[in-house]
Design brief:
Length: 637
């Protein structure tokens, strides 16, 4: 081999930022509604009239959904929860339906469904059991099919996509025991052989959703830079059956108990050079580009969860009586039901709008998809929490226990456990805030980045100042007034017009707030994560309001308009609170308290307890080498 495998290394903050920045899509070749929204430009024309699917796509999608629904109704979902495993016959049934190839082109044996109908299918199967949705999503949204669709060679597509469409399950392996949202620390290596025909992989991957049962893996590994090799983090398709691949553990979690998620070790695994996806060093860019639409799968399952929460809340609160009336008629409970109904409507509006825009490929939806993931995961968790509260003690009781004492087996506590992970994986809420904030301020950084960069020379700053001056001279005056201040604007939306005027005004206020913060903090802006999170949350609410109004207009029914109206009223209250907290908050004192916690100033506060945690290191050793564990890989045949 030409070079030794790299070892784990400490990476500075600036180095980590450079790696993340290099992985971004640098250009905006297509318009983006959400990007414009953060810039104070409410481009309603980009989303209204609501884009519509082609009739043949609808016909094909609805036919598949009917078959999938029939199949899902036969699944013993309680068994999945009880045994913490999806039965092989269920997975094989999904294979026979073609569910593994929903997003794969028909010429490779797939169903060729649109993003809209793929999401509807995930919402449906995820409502039966979220672990089923995770299985299909991890396989198609981030596993082998999507990266190959976007970046694969014709030979790779011919070789792998027919397998992925019908028989083979795939997984995506990026995370390592000591590498989470900071991929610059990635330690798994891929060393090219002398003749360049193969790469030799060494390393350990953690939280490999589908990895326990997968036949094919997308693995991110670092290629060392050497003569003839650019090096960098690179994507490979790896056969799980290859020598040196060992599934060392099947992980267990508070929710998604049927999830086939594990720890996979690679020791001297030889991978053909023809299995490399894209050029060396393009792995993270491939991963992020894949997630631009791949992230829509998670809010799809959140929409399904919201629909189920609404159904159970409606049925239960109508039959449960307290103080002489159904509990739904008591305002304390009724407000929760209204929140679930209105929020489910808005989440579906955000999802379908983003998905249809993805199908049409007219707009850049990287921010919209990220907002859908962020907003969907947060709001679905809140809806499930409210459902448990509505159900009271029965919400805390397991479905199995309810059935044992003669009541309907409603798994409310299970959905709360199952949904919790959505705020963590495929980008935690905190990481999504930073990712979206980076994209939202891209226009500012492109013209004024050098001006606020302390590492730039005075000459660079002078040139940046001239460039920024021209941009802001044109941009800032447009933030003063707009259609949102005119009482007849958006009149075609009827009673919802006022909400769209609010969104337009809120968009300009959001842009002004962002500009003021950049002027105030300059290069320190990136450290103001609390502020950036609130900026993004405001944008998410404004996007959701826009989508809800456009969807209600498309549906044209009084019920849809009422739900959109209710959602926008609820959302506006949240937005006003967020705007207030931009400048009135506890960020500074919180930072001082954190310093005290880490410095041991408050250890006295921890007295009076016992810690039930076991022994062992906080982070497992991931030193490369041969596996000492039994191989738990369990292919489904």
């Amino acid at each position: 081999m030409s070079t030794p495998a790299p070892t784990p290394q400490q990476v500075s903050a600036s180095e980590a930022r450079a790696v993340a920045e290099a992985a971004r899509e640098q250009d905006w070749r297509k318009p983006s509604f959400a990007k414009e929204l953060f810039l104070g430009r409410f481009r309603l024309d980009l989303i209204h009239p609501h884009p519509m699917p082609a009739p043949d796509d609808v016909e094909r999608g609805e036919a598949f959904l009917a078959k999938l629904r029939d199949f899902c109704e036969t699944i013993d979902t309680a068994r999945i929860e009880r045994e913490a495993k999806i039965p092989d016959e269920v997975v094989n049934g999904l294979k026979e339906l073609g569910a593994l190839g929903m997003k794969i082109d028909t010429k490779y044996g797939g169903l060729g469904l649109t993003q809209v109908y793929y999401n509807k299918a995930l919402a449906l199967v995820g409502s039966a059991n979220p672990a089923l949705g995770a299985l299909l999503s991890a396989h198609q949204s981030i596993g082998v099919p999507q990266p190959l669709k976007l970046f694969g060679t014709p030979e790779q597509k011919e070789k792998f996509l027919p397998r992925c469409a019908r028989t083979d399950i795939s997984a995506f392996l990026l995370t390592e025991p000591d590498v989470g949202s900071d991929p610059a620390r990635l330690a798994t290596s891929a060393v090219p052989t002398e003749d360049g025909s193969e790469y030799v992989l060494d390393g350990v991957k953690l939280w490999t959703t589908n990895g326990v049962v997968a036949d094919l893996l997308v693995v991110m590994a670092r290629v060392p830079k050497s003569e003839g090799h650019k090096g960098g983090i690179t994507a490979f398709v790896v056969e799980t059956a290859a020598d040196g691949v060992t599934v060392e553990n099947r992980n267990a979690f508070m929710g998604l108990r049927g999830l086939e998620n594990g720890v996979t070790r690679f020791h001297q695994v030889r991978v053909p050079a023809g299995n490399r996806i894209g050029p060396e060093g393009a792995g993270l860019k491939i991963a992020l580009t894949t997630l631009n639409t791949g992230r829509l799968s998670l809010p799809a399952m959140c929409v399904g969860a919201g629909k189920w929460c609404l159904k159970i809340a409606r049925e239960w609160s109508a039959v449960r009586e307290q103080w002489g009336a159904p509990i739904a008629k008591h305002e304390a409970v009724g407000s929760k039901i209204a929140f679930i109904a209105a929020t489910t409507f808005a989440l579906e509006a955000v999802l379908d709008l983003s998905s249809q825009m993805a199908d049409e490929n007219r707009n850049d939806i990287r921010i919209e998809a990220a907002l859908a993931k962020l907003y969907g995961s947060e709001m679905a968790w809140l809806m499930a929490d409210e459902l448990v509260q509505i159900r009271g003690g029965r919400g805390f009781e397991t479905a199995e226990s309810l059935a044992a004492r003669g009541e309907r087996a409603v798994p409310a506590e299970q959905i709360l456990r199952d949904l919790r992970i959505n705020r963590i994986f495929e980008g935690s809420t905190e990481i999504m805030h930073l990712l979206i904030a980076r994209e939202a301020v891209d226009a500012h950084l492109s013209v004024a980045g050098d001006l606020i960069d302390p590492a730039k020379s005075l000459g660079d700053k002078a040139r940046a100042g001239a460039k920024a001056g021209g941009f802001y001279a044109r941009w800032l005056p447009k933030l003063v007034a707009g259609p949102g201040q005119l009482p007849r604007s958006y009149a075609e939306f009827g009673e919802l017009a006022g909400h769209l005027r609010y969104v337009e005004r809120g968009s300009r206020k959001l842009a002004r707030s962002t500009f003021y913060a950049m002027s105030r903090w300059q290069g320190r802006m990136e450290t103001k994560q609390g502020f950036l999170g609130r900026i993004v949350d405001i944008g998410a609410e404004l996007f959701a309001m826009s989508a809800a109004c456009v969807r209600a207009d498309m549906l044209g029914t009084p019920a849809a308009r009422q739900l959109a109206d209710a959602f926008c009223r609820q959302s506006r209250i949240r937005v006003e609170e967020l705007f207030g907290r931009l400048w009135t908050n506890t960020d500074a004192i919180d930072a001082r308290v954190v310093d005290g916690v880490l410095g041991g100033a408050y250890t006295w506060l921890e007295e009076g307890i016992v810690d039930p945690s076991g022994e062992g290191p906080w982070i497992a050793d991931a030193t490369p080498g041969p596996s000492k564990a039994e191989n738990l890989h369990r292919p489904i045949r």
